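Contributing new records

If you add data, match the layout below exactly. Sequence lines come first and carry their own label; structure lines follow with theirs. Keep one chain per record. Anything else will be rejected by the validation script.
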Amino acid sequence: MRNKIVLFALVMLAGSNFIKAQNTVIKANLLSPLVRTASFFVEQKLNNNSSIQFGILYTGNTWDDTRVRGWGITPEYRFYLSETAAPKGFFVAPYTRYLHYNLENEVNDEATLNGFGAGLIIGQQYIFKKRVSFEWFFGPGYTSINLDTKSGAEEDFDTDNWDGFTLRAGLTVGIAF
């Protein structure tokens, strides 16, 4: 219920007309539900050529025989390379990511996964009608994980999806204000 109230308040704030320029964009990744994840971002314009973005995700998925529940954060710095002012146009963005997942396999062994990574994405963001944002992005990343087993052995958990080189991609839709 609290999440619905916060979402409603953000939508109402974004819909208000007291801010003329698009300096802030609140977005959701449309691809995340395909892997049973919720992924949201807030981007803040710094100047005409750059912005910072903070992303948060929550997942509740099963990979092979491993049930995964947890969250992650992804800060990034965006360099806009197009003629239009940020947050519109083509961008390049280095990012870092921290993951914290609780894992459980089919025989109820438990572990905690903590991962730290970094990467580089490219993308394009469009702002329609001065309010609606649409964006695509993709790029490589690398994550190093630490697995703390509470029961069972490390080999009992499928962690290949998070350890090593990864691909980060998304399609977002959001509200600019």
